[in-house]
Write a structure and sequence with these properties.
The protein is mainly alpha-helical. The protein has one domain. Helix content is about 95%, strand content about 0%. The protein is rod-shaped.
Length: about 90
């Protein structure tokens, strides 16, 4: 083990500054990556919420249109039955 320490010392490599830099910058970079990932995920959820709101509005409009259509179809069926009765009476 002393041979390895002597080799590192003799080559002039001091690992302490590298270790300090890594122990500072690696957590900072990891935290920045997590923050960016969380922000992008939040934006995706917001976009999904907006899309769901527009789908909900579209569904409500479709239900309202279907209700109107059913009312008009009922009126039309009444008119057709009246016309059929007239044709039976005439024919």
């Amino acid at each position: 083990m002393t041979h390895m320490t002597t080799t590192l010392a003799s080559s002039g490599t001091n690992l302490t500054p590298i270790g300090v830099c890594l122990s500072i910058f690696v957590p900072i970079c990891a935290a920045a990556a997590v923050i960016v990932w969380s922000y992008l995920r939040l934006q995706r959820h917001r976009a999904d919420a907006v899309a769901m709101a527009s789908y909900r509005k579209l569904a409500e409009e479709a239900v309202a249109n279907m209700t109107e259509l059913r009312a008009e179809m009922t009126k039309l069926a009444e008119h057709v039955s009246v016309v059929e009765q007239l044709m039976r009476d005439v024919g």
